[in-house]
Amino acid sequence: MKRVVVGLSGGVDSSVAAYLLKEQGYEVIGLFMKNWHDDSVTISDECPWLDDSNDALLVAEKLGIPFQTVDLSEQYKERIVDYMFAEYEKGRTPNPDVLCNREIKFDVFMKIALELGADYVATGHYCRKDTIEIDEELTHRLLAGKDSNKDQSYFLCQLSQEQLAKTLFPVGELIKPEVRKIAAEQDLITAEKKDSQGLCFIGKVRLPEFLQQQLKPKNGAIIEIAADHAIYDHADAPSQLHNYNYVPNDGKKVGVHIGAHYFTKGQRKGLSVGGTPLPLFVIETDVATNTIYVGQGKEHPGLYRSQLLVKSNELHWVRTDLALKQGELMPVKARIRYRQNLENAIINLTEEGLVVRFENPQSAIQEGQFVAWYLEDELIGSGVIS
Predict the structure, then answer these.
(1) Confidence (pLDDT) at 51
(2) I want to staple 317 with a disulfide (CB 3.0 to 4.6 A). Which of 87, 224, 261, 323 is the partner?
(3) Residue 239 pLDDT > 50, yes or no?
(4) What phi and psi, each to the nearest 5 degrees, are found at residue 289?
(5) Hey, what domains does the chain have and what are their CATH numbers?
(6) Catalytic residue among 47, 100, 127, 157
(7) Does 200 qualify as catalytic in the annotation?
(8) Residue 100 catalytic?
(9) Percent of the chain whose pLDDT exceeds 70
(10) What is the pTM of this model?
(11) What number is the average pLDDT over the span 89-113?
C-alpha cells in the first residue's frame, strides 16, 4: 500500500484531499505545519493557526488517520519572512505564497514526509498533474485545475520535476462546490469553513505593521504625474529593458508618505491624499529617493506596460525539455498574478534573460512578483519579474 502524507491545513480542500486518498486505498497520514508564532501583526480572528490546527486534528480523527504537527517556524522565518523584508526594502513586491510552496511545502515539508516513509505528498491545491513519456523518460506536467475560478497552478509555478514526481493533487479534478458537498456528506468540521486569506501560513496581516518590524518609517514625497506627462520609453532592445516603464516627469507634490518600501504599483489604499477627481494609484516607487509617484484613475498610462524581463538566474522551467535556447521565441499564455486571466504573450530568451512581451499592455507589473507562462492549460515555466 502506497503511503501519502497530506498537508492538512485545517481547511476544506486539504480535508477532502485526505478523504479522497483514503477512499482510493492509500495509507494516509495527516501533517499540520505550524509556521508562525507572532500574533501581534495578524488580524487575529481571521486566520488563527491554533484553530486551524484543531480543525485539522478533528478531520484526521474523523477520517481515522494518524496526525501530527510539525513546527517549521524557524525555516519559514529564514526562507519566507526574511526574504520578504529584503525584497520590500529593495522596492520589490514578493509573492510569499509562491515562495511558501517552493521553499516550505514542497521542500522542507516534503523532506519530512519522505523521512516518514511517504511515497507521495498531497495538498488541497486546485491543480492537476499528469505524466507522459518523452524519449523514454517520464515527464510530469503541471496543469490548471478543473475549477477555473479556483485554479491555483500559478502558486505552484516554481515546482521542479523532482517535486512533481512525489506530489498528488486530489481535488484538482473537482470544482469548489463539489469539494464542499463531499465534506458535508462526510460530516467534516471544515465543510462550511471560509477559505483562508492573507499571507501563506500567517493569515491576514496589517502589512505596514508587519514590515515595520524590520523596515523603519521614513517620510517622503508623493508626486502626482498628469496622464499627458507620462512619457513612454518603448525600449525595444533587450539591453534597454530596464527603461521600459513610463517615466515620471513634471510631477507635483500632493502629499507625504511614511516609506516608499511600504507601497507597491497599482496600490490605491493608504495614500491619505484626497481631493482629486479620480482616485490616486501608485504608478512607481523609488526607494533610493524615498519617493512615490501616483496618477489619477486606474486607466492612467503610467500603470501600463507591455513587456517585462526575467533575469537568467531567476528563470525556472517546470518543463525543462521545453526550455528556450538563446534567440528562440515561443507564443504562450501568461499571467503576472493569481486569478488574472491568461494573456497572449511571446517569450524570447536573450542574453539578459527571458523577455515576456504581452499582446495587450498589462497594469501594475511589479518587480519581485512572479510571471508564469502556459501552453494551453499546462504551466511550463515562471520567473521573478526584474
Answers:
(1) 85
(2) 323
(3) no
(4) -100, 0
(5) 3-210 (3.40.50.620), 214-303 (2.30.30.280), 304-384 (2.40.30.10)
(6) 100
(7) yes
(8) yes
(9) 88
(10) 0.90
(11) 94
Per annotation, catalytic residue among 47, 127, 157, 200:
200
- For cell 476544506, the residue is 12
Burial 19-54 (b: 16+ CB within 10 A, else e): bbbbeeebbbbbbbbbbbeeeebbeeeebebeebbe
Ramachandran region, residue 111 (left: φ > 0; alpha: ψ -120 to 50; beta: rest)? alpha
Q: What is the pLDDT of residues 121-179, one digit of tens each?
A: 999 999 999 999 999 999 999 999 999 999 999 999 999 999 999 999 999 999 999 99
- Identify the pLDDT of residue 43: 44
Q: How far is CA 345 from CA 333, 334, 340, 356, 360, in A?
A: 6, 6, 14, 7, 8
What confidence tens digit (pLDDT) does each residue in 36-93 have?
A: 656 555 544 554 678 889 999 999 999 999 999 999 989 988 998 889 889 999 999 9
C-alpha span between 139 and 52 (Å, rounded): 35
